[in-house]
Specification:
Blueprint: E1 2-9, E2 12-16, E3 20-26, E4 29-33, E5 51-56, H1 62-65, E6 77-81, H2 85-88, H3 90-95, E7 119-123, E8 128-131, E9 134-140, E10 149-155, E11 158-164, H4 187-200, E12 206-209, H5 219-236, E13 252-253, E14 259-262, E15 265-268, E16 272-276, E17 281-285, H6 292-302, E18 306-311, H7 323-330, E19 333-336, H8 338-345, E20 364-365, E21 370-374, E22 377-383, E23 392-398, E24 401-407, H9 430-444, E25 448-451, E26 456-458, H10 461-479, H11 487-506
Parallel strand pairs: 4-5, 5-6, 6-7, 11-12, 17-18, 18-19, 19-20, 24-25
Antiparallel strand pairs: 1-2, 2-3, 3-4, 8-9, 9-10, 10-11, 13-14, 14-15, 15-16, 16-17, 21-22, 22-23, 23-24, 25-26
Helix pairs in contact: 4-5, 5-10, 9-10
Length: 507
Amino acid sequence: MALEPIQIFPDLWQFTDTCNVYLLKHGDEAVAIDFGSGAWLQHLPALGIRRLAHVFLTHHHPDQCAGLQAQSPWPFDIHAPSGEERFFDPEQVARGDFDARYKGCPDTYAVLPGGIPNARYDMAGFGDFFWGAERIRFLLTPGHSANACSIIVDHAGRQVVFCGDAAHAGATIWQPYHLEWDHWTGGGALAAWEGIVRLYGVAIDALCPAHGPVVTDRPRDLLKRLARKLLTLYHSKGQISPGEPDAYLTPEIMPCGAQRLLPHLYHFGVNGYLLRSEDGQGMVIDPFSEDMPALEALLGELGDVRPTVATATHYHADHCDGIRYLRERHGCCAVLHPWVAEPLGEAAHAHVPWLPREPIVPDELWPARGEWEWRGYRFTVAPWPGQTRWHCVFMTRVDGMAVAFGGDSFQPASRWNGTGGYCAYNGSRFEDGFVASAQLIMSWKPDIVVCGHDTFYTYNPSKFRKIIRWARAAQSAVTDLCPSGNLEQDYYGVSQAAAAFFWAAAR
Protein backbone atom coordinates (compact mmCIF):
# COMPACT_ATOMS: atom_id res chain seq x y z
CA MET A 1 0.00 0.00 0.00
CA ALA A 2 1.18 3.50 -0.87
CA LEU A 3 -0.47 5.76 1.67
CA GLU A 4 1.05 9.03 0.51
CA PRO A 5 -1.72 11.17 -1.00
CA ILE A 6 -1.82 11.46 -4.78
CA GLN A 7 -3.44 14.65 -5.98
CA ILE A 8 -5.90 14.09 -8.83
CA PHE A 9 -7.28 17.63 -9.02
CA PRO A 10 -7.05 20.53 -6.59
CA ASP A 11 -8.54 19.40 -3.25
CA LEU A 12 -9.09 15.82 -4.51
CA TRP A 13 -6.66 13.09 -3.47
CA GLN A 14 -6.29 9.35 -3.88
CA PHE A 15 -4.80 6.99 -1.27
CA THR A 16 -3.81 3.49 -2.35
CA ASP A 17 -5.00 1.56 0.70
CA THR A 18 -6.61 -1.90 0.74
CA CYS A 19 -8.73 -0.18 -1.88
CA ASN A 20 -8.42 3.26 -3.43
CA VAL A 21 -9.72 5.82 -0.96
CA TYR A 22 -10.65 9.21 -2.37
CA LEU A 23 -10.67 12.36 -0.28
CA LEU A 24 -12.63 15.42 -1.40
CA LYS A 25 -12.01 18.73 0.44
CA HIS A 26 -14.11 21.89 0.75
CA GLY A 27 -12.52 24.50 3.00
CA ASP A 28 -11.19 22.67 6.02
CA GLU A 29 -13.80 19.88 5.80
CA ALA A 30 -13.68 16.69 3.73
CA VAL A 31 -15.58 13.59 2.72
CA ALA A 32 -14.11 10.20 1.80
CA ILE A 33 -15.25 7.68 -0.78
CA ASP A 34 -14.56 4.24 0.68
CA PHE A 35 -12.36 3.76 3.75
CA GLY A 36 -9.96 0.84 3.39
CA SER A 37 -7.83 0.31 6.50
CA GLY A 38 -8.14 3.91 7.66
CA ALA A 39 -4.35 4.34 7.83
CA TRP A 40 -4.68 7.37 5.54
CA LEU A 41 -6.43 9.35 8.31
CA GLN A 42 -3.02 10.40 9.64
CA HIS A 43 -2.54 12.63 6.58
CA LEU A 44 -5.59 14.82 7.17
CA PRO A 45 -3.83 17.61 9.13
CA ALA A 46 -1.09 17.94 6.51
CA LEU A 47 -3.78 18.42 3.86
CA GLY A 48 -5.39 21.21 5.85
CA ILE A 49 -8.40 19.11 6.82
CA ARG A 50 -9.77 19.83 10.26
CA ARG A 51 -12.81 17.62 10.05
CA LEU A 52 -13.81 14.52 8.10
CA ALA A 53 -17.58 14.85 7.83
CA HIS A 54 -18.73 11.81 5.86
CA VAL A 55 -17.56 8.44 4.51
CA PHE A 56 -19.45 7.01 1.54
CA LEU A 57 -19.03 3.27 0.89
CA THR A 58 -19.57 2.07 -2.67
CA HIS A 59 -20.24 -1.54 -1.59
CA HIS A 60 -19.78 -3.90 1.34
CA HIS A 61 -16.54 -5.80 0.65
CA PRO A 62 -13.99 -5.80 3.49
CA ASP A 63 -11.29 -4.09 1.42
CA GLN A 64 -13.61 -1.08 1.20
CA CYS A 65 -14.38 -0.78 4.89
CA ALA A 66 -12.47 -3.08 7.29
CA GLY A 67 -10.80 -0.17 9.09
CA LEU A 68 -14.17 1.09 10.25
CA GLN A 69 -14.21 -1.66 12.87
CA ALA A 70 -11.27 -0.04 14.70
CA GLN A 71 -13.50 2.46 16.48
CA SER A 72 -17.16 3.12 17.18
CA PRO A 73 -18.67 5.62 17.11
CA TRP A 74 -16.59 7.62 14.65
CA PRO A 75 -16.70 11.44 14.54
CA PHE A 76 -18.13 11.28 11.02
CA ASP A 77 -21.20 9.79 9.39
CA ILE A 78 -20.91 6.48 7.54
CA HIS A 79 -23.14 6.08 4.49
CA ALA A 80 -23.77 2.79 2.67
CA PRO A 81 -25.94 1.75 -0.28
CA SER A 82 -29.55 1.00 0.48
CA GLY A 83 -30.04 -2.77 0.43
CA GLU A 84 -26.57 -3.56 1.82
CA GLU A 85 -27.81 -3.77 5.40
CA ARG A 86 -27.47 -7.53 5.69
CA PHE A 87 -23.79 -7.29 4.78
CA PHE A 88 -23.00 -4.33 7.05
CA ASP A 89 -25.38 -4.29 10.01
CA PRO A 90 -23.78 -6.30 12.88
CA GLU A 91 -27.04 -7.93 13.95
CA GLN A 92 -27.95 -8.97 10.42
CA VAL A 93 -24.42 -10.20 9.71
CA ALA A 94 -24.55 -12.29 12.90
CA ARG A 95 -27.85 -13.85 11.80
CA GLY A 96 -26.78 -14.39 8.21
CA ASP A 97 -25.75 -17.77 6.88
CA PHE A 98 -22.81 -16.89 4.63
CA ASP A 99 -21.13 -20.28 4.77
CA ALA A 100 -21.65 -21.45 1.20
CA ARG A 101 -19.82 -24.73 1.57
CA TYR A 102 -23.12 -26.53 1.99
CA LYS A 103 -25.02 -24.64 -0.68
CA GLY A 104 -24.27 -23.05 -4.03
CA CYS A 105 -22.66 -19.72 -4.80
CA PRO A 106 -22.83 -17.52 -1.70
CA ASP A 107 -24.80 -14.32 -1.39
CA THR A 108 -21.41 -12.64 -1.20
CA TYR A 109 -17.84 -13.82 -1.60
CA ALA A 110 -16.50 -11.26 0.87
CA VAL A 111 -18.29 -9.80 3.87
CA LEU A 112 -16.72 -8.28 6.97
CA PRO A 113 -17.31 -10.56 9.98
CA GLY A 114 -18.95 -8.52 12.70
CA GLY A 115 -20.20 -5.86 10.30
CA ILE A 116 -20.03 -2.13 10.87
CA PRO A 117 -22.21 -0.39 13.46
CA ASN A 118 -23.94 2.94 13.00
CA ALA A 119 -23.99 3.04 9.21
CA ARG A 120 -26.76 4.93 7.44
CA TYR A 121 -28.26 3.10 4.46
CA ASP A 122 -29.23 6.25 2.63
CA MET A 123 -27.30 5.84 -0.63
CA ALA A 124 -30.22 4.93 -2.86
CA GLY A 125 -29.47 4.43 -6.53
CA PHE A 126 -30.57 7.56 -8.46
CA GLY A 127 -30.72 9.52 -5.19
CA ASP A 128 -28.46 12.22 -3.80
CA PHE A 129 -27.10 13.81 -0.64
CA PHE A 130 -26.29 17.45 0.09
CA TRP A 131 -22.96 18.28 1.73
CA GLY A 132 -23.46 21.94 2.24
CA ALA A 133 -24.36 23.20 -1.20
CA GLU A 134 -22.63 20.24 -2.88
CA ARG A 135 -25.02 17.69 -4.40
CA ILE A 136 -23.45 14.21 -4.17
CA ARG A 137 -25.29 11.85 -6.51
CA PHE A 138 -25.63 8.07 -6.37
CA LEU A 139 -25.98 5.84 -9.41
CA LEU A 140 -26.83 2.15 -9.09
CA THR A 141 -23.99 0.15 -10.69
CA PRO A 142 -24.33 -3.46 -9.50
CA GLY A 143 -21.77 -6.19 -10.06
CA HIS A 144 -19.58 -6.77 -7.03
CA SER A 145 -22.81 -6.32 -5.10
CA ALA A 146 -26.40 -6.13 -6.25
CA ASN A 147 -26.77 -2.73 -4.56
CA ALA A 148 -23.35 -1.22 -5.31
CA CYS A 149 -23.37 2.47 -6.17
CA SER A 150 -21.18 4.86 -8.07
CA ILE A 151 -20.85 8.37 -6.67
CA ILE A 152 -20.89 11.47 -8.86
CA VAL A 153 -19.67 14.92 -7.83
CA ASP A 154 -18.92 18.22 -9.55
CA HIS A 155 -15.45 19.34 -8.59
CA ALA A 156 -12.98 21.88 -9.93
CA GLY A 157 -15.09 22.39 -13.01
CA ARG A 158 -15.20 18.68 -13.76
CA GLN A 159 -17.69 15.85 -13.32
CA VAL A 160 -15.96 13.11 -11.36
CA VAL A 161 -17.32 9.56 -10.97
CA PHE A 162 -16.20 7.22 -8.19
CA CYS A 163 -17.30 3.85 -9.54
CA GLY A 164 -16.21 1.42 -6.81
CA ASP A 165 -15.52 -1.94 -8.45
CA ALA A 166 -17.97 -1.47 -11.32
CA ALA A 167 -15.04 -0.80 -13.66
CA HIS A 168 -11.25 -1.04 -13.76
CA ALA A 169 -8.64 0.35 -16.15
CA GLY A 170 -8.34 -1.56 -19.40
CA ALA A 171 -12.10 -2.12 -19.56
CA THR A 172 -11.79 -4.92 -17.01
CA ILE A 173 -13.34 -5.88 -13.66
CA TRP A 174 -11.45 -6.27 -10.40
CA GLN A 175 -11.92 -9.90 -9.25
CA PRO A 176 -14.58 -10.74 -11.87
CA TYR A 177 -15.78 -13.80 -9.99
CA HIS A 178 -17.90 -11.39 -7.93
CA LEU A 179 -20.20 -11.19 -10.96
CA GLU A 180 -21.12 -14.86 -10.50
CA TRP A 181 -24.24 -14.39 -8.40
CA ASP A 182 -25.17 -18.03 -8.93
CA HIS A 183 -23.37 -21.01 -10.35
CA TRP A 184 -24.77 -21.12 -13.86
CA THR A 185 -26.61 -18.03 -15.12
CA GLY A 186 -25.28 -14.67 -16.27
CA GLY A 187 -27.52 -12.68 -13.95
CA GLY A 188 -24.65 -10.83 -12.28
CA ALA A 189 -22.93 -10.09 -15.59
CA LEU A 190 -26.15 -8.75 -17.06
CA ALA A 191 -26.77 -6.53 -14.05
CA ALA A 192 -23.20 -5.23 -14.29
CA TRP A 193 -23.69 -4.55 -18.01
CA GLU A 194 -26.84 -2.56 -17.29
CA GLY A 195 -24.98 -0.51 -14.67
CA ILE A 196 -22.09 0.23 -17.03
CA VAL A 197 -24.48 1.26 -19.80
CA ARG A 198 -26.16 3.53 -17.25
CA LEU A 199 -22.77 4.98 -16.28
CA TYR A 200 -21.82 5.43 -19.94
CA GLY A 201 -24.74 7.81 -20.29
CA VAL A 202 -23.13 10.21 -17.79
CA ALA A 203 -20.55 12.85 -18.70
CA ILE A 204 -17.27 11.83 -17.06
CA ASP A 205 -14.06 13.82 -16.81
CA ALA A 206 -12.41 11.40 -14.41
CA LEU A 207 -13.36 7.80 -13.57
CA CYS A 208 -12.06 6.86 -10.13
CA PRO A 209 -12.27 3.08 -9.45
CA ALA A 210 -11.78 1.28 -6.14
CA HIS A 211 -8.72 -0.51 -7.55
CA GLY A 212 -6.23 0.46 -10.20
CA PRO A 213 -5.44 3.85 -11.72
CA VAL A 214 -7.75 6.81 -12.18
CA VAL A 215 -8.91 7.08 -15.80
CA THR A 216 -9.01 10.56 -17.33
CA ASP A 217 -8.30 9.66 -20.96
CA ARG A 218 -11.66 9.01 -22.67
CA PRO A 219 -13.26 7.16 -19.71
CA ARG A 220 -16.57 6.71 -21.54
CA ASP A 221 -14.77 4.80 -24.30
CA LEU A 222 -13.50 2.45 -21.59
CA LEU A 223 -17.06 1.96 -20.37
CA LYS A 224 -18.29 1.27 -23.89
CA ARG A 225 -15.68 -1.46 -24.34
CA LEU A 226 -16.43 -2.86 -20.90
CA ALA A 227 -20.14 -3.05 -21.70
CA ARG A 228 -19.35 -5.17 -24.76
CA LYS A 229 -17.16 -7.50 -22.70
CA LEU A 230 -19.84 -7.90 -20.03
CA LEU A 231 -22.42 -8.78 -22.64
CA THR A 232 -20.01 -11.36 -24.06
CA LEU A 233 -19.58 -12.81 -20.59
CA TYR A 234 -23.35 -12.95 -20.20
CA HIS A 235 -23.72 -14.85 -23.47
CA SER A 236 -20.98 -17.29 -22.38
CA LYS A 237 -23.22 -18.26 -19.48
CA GLY A 238 -25.85 -19.38 -21.98
CA GLN A 239 -26.28 -22.38 -24.25
CA ILE A 240 -23.18 -24.57 -24.65
CA SER A 241 -24.43 -26.70 -27.57
CA PRO A 242 -26.90 -24.54 -29.52
CA GLY A 243 -29.32 -26.33 -31.77
CA GLU A 244 -28.58 -29.81 -30.46
CA PRO A 245 -31.61 -32.08 -29.92
CA ASP A 246 -32.00 -33.37 -26.39
CA ALA A 247 -31.92 -36.98 -27.69
CA TYR A 248 -33.48 -38.32 -24.49
CA LEU A 249 -33.81 -42.08 -24.06
CA THR A 250 -37.33 -43.37 -23.52
CA PRO A 251 -37.29 -45.49 -20.36
CA GLU A 252 -39.71 -48.09 -19.07
CA ILE A 253 -41.60 -46.61 -16.11
CA MET A 254 -41.80 -49.18 -13.33
CA PRO A 255 -44.68 -49.44 -10.83
CA CYS A 256 -42.43 -48.09 -8.03
CA GLY A 257 -41.73 -44.96 -10.08
CA ALA A 258 -38.17 -45.87 -11.03
CA GLN A 259 -37.14 -46.03 -14.69
CA ARG A 260 -35.60 -49.05 -16.40
CA LEU A 261 -33.12 -47.76 -18.99
CA LEU A 262 -31.68 -51.17 -19.88
CA PRO A 263 -32.40 -54.64 -18.49
CA HIS A 264 -29.60 -54.20 -15.94
CA LEU A 265 -29.64 -50.42 -15.47
CA TYR A 266 -32.21 -48.40 -13.51
CA HIS A 267 -32.67 -44.74 -12.64
CA PHE A 268 -34.33 -43.76 -9.36
CA GLY A 269 -35.09 -40.51 -7.59
CA VAL A 270 -33.34 -37.40 -8.90
CA ASN A 271 -29.75 -38.49 -9.40
CA GLY A 272 -29.41 -42.17 -8.58
CA TYR A 273 -28.65 -45.14 -10.82
CA LEU A 274 -28.60 -48.81 -9.94
CA LEU A 275 -26.42 -51.14 -12.01
CA ARG A 276 -27.34 -54.78 -11.51
CA SER A 277 -24.88 -57.65 -11.87
CA GLU A 278 -25.79 -61.11 -13.13
CA ASP A 279 -25.39 -62.55 -9.63
CA GLY A 280 -27.85 -60.10 -8.05
CA GLN A 281 -25.48 -57.51 -6.61
CA GLY A 282 -26.01 -53.79 -7.17
CA MET A 283 -23.79 -50.77 -7.71
CA VAL A 284 -25.41 -47.52 -6.64
CA ILE A 285 -24.17 -44.51 -8.60
CA ASP A 286 -24.62 -40.93 -7.35
CA PRO A 287 -26.59 -41.73 -4.18
CA PHE A 288 -28.44 -38.67 -2.86
CA SER A 289 -29.83 -39.04 0.66
CA GLU A 290 -33.22 -37.73 -0.47
CA ASP A 291 -33.33 -40.46 -3.14
CA MET A 292 -32.90 -43.34 -0.69
CA PRO A 293 -36.66 -44.00 -0.25
CA ALA A 294 -36.92 -44.27 -4.05
CA LEU A 295 -34.01 -46.72 -4.04
CA GLU A 296 -35.67 -48.84 -1.35
CA ALA A 297 -38.87 -48.89 -3.37
CA LEU A 298 -36.91 -50.04 -6.43
CA LEU A 299 -35.12 -52.75 -4.45
CA GLY A 300 -38.43 -53.88 -3.04
CA GLU A 301 -39.90 -54.22 -6.51
CA LEU A 302 -36.87 -56.05 -7.89
CA GLY A 303 -36.72 -58.31 -4.85
CA ASP A 304 -33.45 -60.04 -5.70
CA VAL A 305 -30.82 -57.25 -5.81
CA ARG A 306 -28.49 -56.44 -2.93
CA PRO A 307 -26.47 -53.18 -3.10
CA THR A 308 -22.81 -53.85 -2.33
CA VAL A 309 -20.94 -50.90 -3.90
CA ALA A 310 -21.57 -47.15 -4.01
CA THR A 311 -19.77 -44.53 -6.08
CA ALA A 312 -20.21 -40.94 -7.29
CA THR A 313 -19.39 -38.93 -10.39
CA HIS A 314 -18.50 -35.83 -8.34
CA TYR A 315 -18.36 -34.56 -4.77
CA HIS A 316 -21.56 -32.46 -4.63
CA ALA A 317 -23.75 -33.60 -1.77
CA ASP A 318 -26.74 -34.41 -3.96
CA HIS A 319 -24.58 -37.03 -5.70
CA CYS A 320 -22.84 -38.65 -2.76
CA ASP A 321 -24.33 -37.93 0.67
CA GLY A 322 -26.37 -41.16 0.49
CA ILE A 323 -23.16 -43.17 0.85
CA ARG A 324 -23.43 -43.06 4.61
CA TYR A 325 -26.95 -44.52 4.45
CA LEU A 326 -25.85 -47.25 2.05
CA ARG A 327 -22.99 -48.22 4.32
CA GLU A 328 -25.18 -48.37 7.41
CA ARG A 329 -28.26 -50.00 5.82
CA HIS A 330 -26.69 -52.30 3.23
CA GLY A 331 -23.01 -52.56 4.16
CA CYS A 332 -21.93 -51.02 0.86
CA CYS A 333 -18.29 -50.46 0.02
CA ALA A 334 -17.60 -46.87 -1.13
CA VAL A 335 -15.35 -46.71 -4.20
CA LEU A 336 -14.42 -43.22 -5.42
CA HIS A 337 -12.27 -41.56 -8.02
CA PRO A 338 -9.28 -39.80 -6.35
CA TRP A 339 -10.36 -36.38 -7.61
CA VAL A 340 -13.85 -36.88 -6.18
CA ALA A 341 -12.50 -38.18 -2.89
CA GLU A 342 -10.23 -35.15 -2.39
CA PRO A 343 -12.79 -32.55 -1.19
CA LEU A 344 -15.01 -35.19 0.41
CA GLY A 345 -12.24 -36.26 2.78
CA GLU A 346 -11.68 -32.64 3.80
CA ALA A 347 -15.31 -31.55 3.95
CA ALA A 348 -14.83 -29.72 7.24
CA HIS A 349 -12.03 -27.56 5.81
CA ALA A 350 -12.59 -27.36 2.05
CA HIS A 351 -13.88 -24.10 0.57
CA VAL A 352 -16.06 -25.30 -2.28
CA PRO A 353 -19.85 -25.35 -2.71
CA TRP A 354 -22.35 -28.17 -2.11
CA LEU A 355 -20.24 -30.18 0.28
CA PRO A 356 -21.89 -32.90 2.35
CA ARG A 357 -22.13 -32.03 6.02
CA GLU A 358 -19.81 -34.84 7.04
CA PRO A 359 -16.60 -36.11 5.42
CA ILE A 360 -16.80 -39.22 3.26
CA VAL A 361 -13.69 -41.40 3.20
CA PRO A 362 -13.74 -44.13 0.52
CA ASP A 363 -13.05 -47.77 1.24
CA GLU A 364 -11.30 -48.05 -2.11
CA LEU A 365 -9.97 -45.65 -4.74
CA TRP A 366 -10.21 -46.03 -8.47
CA PRO A 367 -7.14 -45.25 -10.53
CA ALA A 368 -7.13 -41.61 -11.66
CA ARG A 369 -7.08 -42.95 -15.21
CA GLY A 370 -7.39 -46.61 -16.04
CA GLU A 371 -9.67 -49.58 -15.59
CA TRP A 372 -11.55 -51.15 -12.72
CA GLU A 373 -13.65 -54.33 -12.63
CA TRP A 374 -16.75 -55.21 -10.69
CA ARG A 375 -18.91 -58.34 -11.02
CA GLY A 376 -18.21 -58.85 -14.72
CA TYR A 377 -18.26 -55.14 -15.65
CA ARG A 378 -15.00 -53.56 -16.84
CA PHE A 379 -15.03 -49.80 -16.23
CA THR A 380 -12.87 -47.25 -17.97
CA VAL A 381 -12.31 -44.39 -15.55
CA ALA A 382 -10.97 -40.83 -15.99
CA PRO A 383 -11.20 -37.29 -14.63
CA TRP A 384 -14.01 -35.30 -16.27
CA PRO A 385 -13.78 -31.72 -14.98
CA GLY A 386 -16.46 -29.33 -16.12
CA GLN A 387 -19.17 -28.07 -13.79
CA THR A 388 -16.58 -28.66 -11.07
CA ARG A 389 -12.94 -29.68 -11.17
CA TRP A 390 -13.58 -32.61 -8.80
CA HIS A 391 -15.56 -34.68 -11.28
CA CYS A 392 -14.98 -37.98 -13.04
CA VAL A 393 -16.56 -40.11 -15.76
CA PHE A 394 -16.68 -43.90 -16.09
CA MET A 395 -17.92 -46.13 -18.86
CA THR A 396 -18.78 -49.78 -19.14
CA ARG A 397 -20.87 -52.03 -21.37
CA VAL A 398 -24.37 -52.75 -20.09
CA ASP A 399 -26.57 -55.11 -22.06
CA GLY A 400 -24.42 -54.57 -25.13
CA MET A 401 -24.46 -50.75 -24.88
CA ALA A 402 -21.49 -48.53 -24.01
CA VAL A 403 -22.81 -46.42 -21.13
CA ALA A 404 -20.93 -43.38 -19.80
CA PHE A 405 -21.90 -42.12 -16.36
CA GLY A 406 -21.48 -38.38 -16.68
CA GLY A 407 -22.78 -36.58 -13.59
CA ASP A 408 -23.55 -32.91 -14.09
CA SER A 409 -21.04 -31.44 -16.55
CA PHE A 410 -22.93 -31.97 -19.82
CA GLN A 411 -26.71 -32.01 -19.91
CA PRO A 412 -29.25 -32.02 -22.78
CA ALA A 413 -29.59 -28.57 -24.35
CA SER A 414 -32.95 -27.80 -22.71
CA ARG A 415 -31.61 -28.54 -19.22
CA TRP A 416 -29.73 -25.57 -17.70
CA ASN A 417 -28.35 -24.44 -21.08
CA GLY A 418 -26.72 -27.83 -21.54
CA THR A 419 -24.43 -27.74 -18.52
CA GLY A 420 -24.39 -27.75 -14.76
CA GLY A 421 -22.92 -24.27 -15.07
CA TYR A 422 -19.49 -22.74 -14.72
CA CYS A 423 -18.17 -20.49 -11.97
CA ALA A 424 -14.85 -19.91 -10.24
CA TYR A 425 -16.10 -20.94 -6.79
CA ASN A 426 -17.07 -24.36 -8.13
CA GLY A 427 -13.60 -24.84 -9.64
CA SER A 428 -14.90 -24.91 -13.22
CA ARG A 429 -12.13 -25.01 -15.84
CA PHE A 430 -12.19 -24.36 -19.58
CA GLU A 431 -9.34 -25.68 -21.76
CA ASP A 432 -8.24 -28.24 -19.17
CA GLY A 433 -11.84 -28.79 -18.05
CA PHE A 434 -14.77 -28.60 -20.45
CA VAL A 435 -12.59 -28.87 -23.56
CA ALA A 436 -10.52 -31.81 -22.31
CA SER A 437 -13.64 -33.60 -21.05
CA ALA A 438 -15.49 -33.12 -24.34
CA GLN A 439 -12.49 -34.43 -26.26
CA LEU A 440 -12.28 -37.43 -23.93
CA ILE A 441 -15.89 -38.48 -24.43
CA MET A 442 -15.51 -38.05 -28.19
CA SER A 443 -12.60 -40.50 -28.08
CA TRP A 444 -14.64 -42.98 -26.01
CA LYS A 445 -17.71 -42.82 -28.30
CA PRO A 446 -20.33 -44.12 -25.84
CA ASP A 447 -23.76 -45.16 -27.04
CA ILE A 448 -25.56 -43.34 -24.24
CA VAL A 449 -24.64 -40.83 -21.54
CA VAL A 450 -26.49 -41.04 -18.23
CA CYS A 451 -26.29 -37.91 -16.09
CA GLY A 452 -27.72 -36.35 -12.99
CA HIS A 453 -31.08 -34.70 -12.52
CA ASP A 454 -33.19 -37.15 -14.52
CA THR A 455 -31.17 -36.81 -17.74
CA PHE A 456 -30.01 -39.65 -19.98
CA TYR A 457 -29.49 -39.28 -23.69
CA THR A 458 -28.01 -40.71 -26.87
CA TYR A 459 -24.43 -39.60 -27.52
CA ASN A 460 -23.84 -37.41 -30.57
CA PRO A 461 -20.33 -36.05 -31.30
CA SER A 462 -21.72 -32.84 -32.79
CA LYS A 463 -22.89 -31.78 -29.32
CA PHE A 464 -19.39 -32.05 -27.94
CA ARG A 465 -17.78 -30.29 -30.89
CA LYS A 466 -20.04 -27.34 -30.11
CA ILE A 467 -19.10 -27.57 -26.44
CA ILE A 468 -15.41 -27.26 -27.32
CA ARG A 469 -16.06 -24.08 -29.31
CA TRP A 470 -18.24 -22.68 -26.52
CA ALA A 471 -15.68 -23.45 -23.78
CA ARG A 472 -12.89 -21.65 -25.59
CA ALA A 473 -15.11 -18.64 -26.19
CA ALA A 474 -16.16 -18.67 -22.52
CA GLN A 475 -12.54 -18.78 -21.39
CA SER A 476 -11.78 -15.80 -23.60
CA ALA A 477 -14.78 -13.91 -22.22
CA VAL A 478 -13.60 -14.35 -18.63
CA THR A 479 -9.94 -13.67 -19.42
CA ASP A 480 -10.80 -10.44 -21.21
CA LEU A 481 -12.28 -9.12 -17.97
CA CYS A 482 -9.22 -9.97 -15.83
CA PRO A 483 -7.02 -6.91 -15.15
CA SER A 484 -3.87 -9.05 -15.26
CA GLY A 485 -5.11 -11.29 -18.07
CA ASN A 486 -4.36 -14.22 -15.73
CA LEU A 487 -7.29 -16.45 -14.78
CA GLU A 488 -5.46 -18.11 -11.91
CA GLN A 489 -4.65 -14.76 -10.30
CA ASP A 490 -7.82 -12.79 -10.92
CA TYR A 491 -10.52 -15.44 -11.31
CA TYR A 492 -9.51 -18.66 -9.57
CA GLY A 493 -6.73 -18.01 -7.06
CA VAL A 494 -8.14 -14.81 -5.62
CA SER A 495 -11.58 -16.36 -5.37
CA GLN A 496 -10.38 -19.27 -3.29
CA ALA A 497 -8.18 -17.07 -1.11
CA ALA A 498 -11.06 -14.70 -0.44
CA ALA A 499 -13.42 -17.56 0.34
CA ALA A 500 -10.92 -19.24 2.65
CA PHE A 501 -10.26 -15.97 4.49
CA PHE A 502 -13.91 -15.20 5.05
CA TRP A 503 -15.15 -18.64 6.05
CA ALA A 504 -12.28 -19.04 8.49
CA ALA A 505 -13.10 -15.68 10.04
CA ALA A 506 -16.83 -16.42 10.11
CA ARG A 507 -16.30 -19.60 12.09
